[in-house]
Write a structure and sequence with these properties.
Number of helices: 15
Strand content: 15-25%
CATH architecture of the largest domain: Orthogonal Bundle
Shape: globular
Helix content: 25-40%
Number of strands: 20
Largest sheet: 8 strands, mixed
Bound molecules: flavin-adenine dinucleotide
Length: 452
């Protein structure tokens, strides 16, 4: 008869501080929540989610205006309609309605001068033709809808900078529209085209053309994650981060975590990493040389969203359109836009930088842009305040075209399942909830089978 002997690591923990599960999921955002619910409810696997904040949902964030009580989504806005979105929201009895663009006026303003400008392309037919050409071009690459399983050789057009791609195919008039979807990559004209397609791909273009985005009928996207949180209950450890991850090809993985009430040891058959696998995020994992050489290559964007009060008149959206630059795209760092939320006084915003920024840097960027608008007399002077500021960094994870050509993604994907570890999340496929749930879905049978 054999007797289970506790490992040295285990001996440091009281029995109530040792959690044993089939799968430990790091990160409780869109993909971590999806995987946890599906693995537990549909694959009959025990799970625990490690989430550093006090809530599920990640980039999905909702603010409740204390004046009116109305919700304002200032992260994820809408989902691309399709079976995966219907199935997952349906299990929480969330009914969906088409996301309708409200009939607010759009003003084009150079945020540096604060003055109105005429956008570079105004002819709807020419813009539509350029977008049509873009759509026809990206139809060549349906495999991108499932992530980065790239053919060999990789199509050369995907590795061109997007600026060169635009010039090659004469789709200049589509650039400002594409930028509104792809600005999270930073400098879109100097980014490999593959990343533009991953942020404005076939299903997203179709959704734009056919009104194919949906939102919960209650108009607050966090509803999904609140309901998932209630379902998962104690299987989520909030306010918790990993301290040390001991991984093994065979046997149990041992993950030491810091919870608000002290350290705990998680023993799990498999690990699912859903957080962006930057070198910094992966520090507790004691990476081998090969893993480090991949994860050290990421470049990413510093990205903030939030809500201002009283900066811009109601019923108006303003888009940053900088005179004198290529396609009048604003130079980094920039505030992309102020969009009217539908709630009196409140506009949402996004800010983009390819360098690191502090909260104070972003606040000062926003307030100086708003001051420029009132100083220029574009809008009446007001006393704007930043109601909410939310840091979504790191976003737009990308590597160089040379690295992609040298097989970066083949090497990255080959990590799946090694050392007891699987991966999903925004670094692994196009950064849309529906795409990432689809990517995650494809992994789940393999994870469930491996975690027996
Ligand atoms: C502002 C914004 C708007 C968007 N709008 C849309 C949209 O309208 N429609 C759409 O389809 N997609 C949209 N997206 C894309 C969106 O990123 C993805 O849909 C999705 O949120 C990515 O899921 P994820 O699980 O990879 O990451 P996340 O949802 O970010 O989840 C990661 C989770 O891990 C947690 N975490 C991070 N580090 C650690 C750590 N070390 N330990 C423990 N936990 C950690 C985070 O707190 C977070 O909860 C938007 C993205 C952003 C940023």
């Amino acid at each position: 008869m054999s007797i289970a002997v506790p490992s040295i690591l285990e001996r440091g923990f009281a029995s109530q501080d040792i959690i044993t599960r089939d799968v430990v999921i790091i990160g409780g955002g869109a993909t971590g929540t999806y995987a946890a619910v599906r693995l537990r409810e549909d694959f009959n696997k025990s799970v625990v989610v490690i989430e550093k904040t006090g809530r599920l949902g990640g980039h999905t964030e909702t603010y409740f205006d204390p004046v009116t009580g109305y919700p304002v989504d200032y992260g994820v806005q809408a989902w691309v309609d399709g079976p995966i979105v219907r199935n997952f929201t349906g299990r929480f009895n969330i009914s969906l309605v088409p996301a309708v663009s409200p009939p607010f006026a759009t003003d084009y303003i150079d945020f540096k001068t604060g003055k109105h400008v005429i956008p570079p392309f105004t002819n709807a037919t020419i813009i539509g033709q350029a977008l049509g050409t873009y759509f026809q071009l990206i139809l060549q690459w349906p495999f991108l809808a499932e992530g980065y399983n790239l053919p060999s050789p990789i199509p050369a057009d995907l590795l061109l900078t997007f600026g060169d791609f635009v010039n090659k195919y004469g789709i200049q008039a589509a650039v400002p529209t594409i930028w509104t979807f792809s600005q999270s990559v930073g400098d879109i004209l100097n980014t490999p085209t593959i990343y533009i397609v991953q942020t404005f791909g076939i299903s997203e273009v179709q959704a734009v053309l056919e009104n194919g985005f949906v939102v919960p009928a209650d108009h607050f996207n966090s509803e999904l994650y609140l309901k998932a949180s209630a379902l998962l209950g104690a299987d989520v450890l909030y306010g918790t981060t990993t301290i040390d991850v001991a991984r093994h090809d065979v046997g149990l993985q041992q993950i030491t975590v810091q919870t608000p009430t002290g350290q705990k040891l998680i023993k799990a058959k498999k690990i699912l990493v859903t957080i962006p696998p930057t070198a910094d995020n992966m520090k507790p994992f004691t990476l081998n040389h090969h893993e480090s050489s991949l994860f050290n290559q990421w470049q990413y964007t510093t990205y903030y969203t939030g809500i201002i009060r009283n900066g811009v008149p109601d019923d108006v959206n303003v888009i940053n359109t900088q005179s004198g630059t290529e396609f009048d795209l604003p130079t980094l760092p920039f505030v992309q836009e102020f969009s009217f939320s539908g709630v009196p006084g409140l506009h949402t915003f996004h800010t983009v930088s390819t360098k690191s920024q502090t909260d104070a840097d972003v606040e000062s960027l926003i307030l100086s842009d708003l001051t420029a608008m009132s100083s220029a007399g574009t809008f009446p002077a007001s006393s704007p305040s930043i109601e909410v500021l939310s840091n979504h960094t790191p976003l737009g994870l990308r590597v160089t075209a040379d690295s992609i050509a040298a097989g970066f993604y083949a090497n990255l994907y080959a990590l799946q399942g090694l050392k007891g570890t699987f991966y999903t999340g925004l670094a692994w496929a196009g950064d849309y909830t529906s795409v990432l749930w689809t990517f995650t879905d494809a992994l789940l049978p393999g994870i469930a089978a491996a975690a027996t």
